[in-house]
Amino acid sequence: MNAVDQGDVKYTIEDGVGTIEFNHPLSNSLPGKVLGKLANTITELGTNNDVLVIVVRSAGERAFCAGASFDELIAIDNLETGKVFFSGFANVINACRKCSKLIVGRVQGKAVGGGVGLAGAFDYTMATKYASVKLSELAVGIGPFVVGPAVERKVGVSAMSQLAINATEWQSAEWAKTKGLYTDIYDSIEELDQGIKELTDKLKNSNPEAMRLLKQVFWEGTEHWDNLLADRAAMSGKLVLSEFTKNAIAKFKSK
Fold first, then answer.
1. Pick from 137, 128, 129, 135: which is nearest to 155 by CA?
2. I want to staple 131 with a disulfide (CB 3.0 to 4.6 A). Which of 13, 127, 176, 217 is the partner?
3. Looking at 140-225, which runs of residues are DSSP E strands?
4. Between 3.40.50.300, 3.90.226.10, 3.30.450.20, 3.50.50.60, what CATH number should domain 3-253 receive?
5. What's the pLDDT tens digit per position in 171-194?
6. Residues 6 or more apart from 219 whose CB is under 8 A from it?
């Protein structure tokens, strides 16, 4: 099966906690199909009365998310296709933003590109000490245009600039916590899961209306993101068509 057609999203609901898990055999990368299903699942659980709080996680014990699917990126051959692909990341971020439930992110390992964007879009992101971050987009001829607003909202312009410009260097989980991307970091996945359980146990017993209003307060000033992220997706969609970017992606993919 082609890598673009692989991967999936599933969810469970247990005692008020909706847990969404995405997966892909290539380090939990995100082809368009997975992005679409992830956005739709977040929206669906956000309107489910049985769900009081949402946890988003990826499969396995290694990488949290390798970002965009290189196989899909390199196959883009027109502006509309490029815009549609990058809009997939925009749709996930906007789904997190508009969801009325608080979203807890579980980052068990390294996050690259769109994976860093996901961490920024969650309301409360918890990670292990192995969860280094890197925005590698500039290194492949693009730029973190779509995920940038979500990351910048958490870490500020200075740290966002550091990640975006130094696109080949990993920043540690401790760095990410210091900058505000992660709220807590743990020595092991087991400790991470225990920390998430303790938090969600508190949240599911909190006032749902208070949590809904609190989330609105957190995201004030982002009401224009539907248009902003659509414009950013068009920017990335245009860049990915250039010969420079296609060569950079092919070289990066062959490593």
1. 135
2. 127
3. 184-186
4. 3.90.226.10
5. 999 999 999 999 999 999 999 999
6. 97
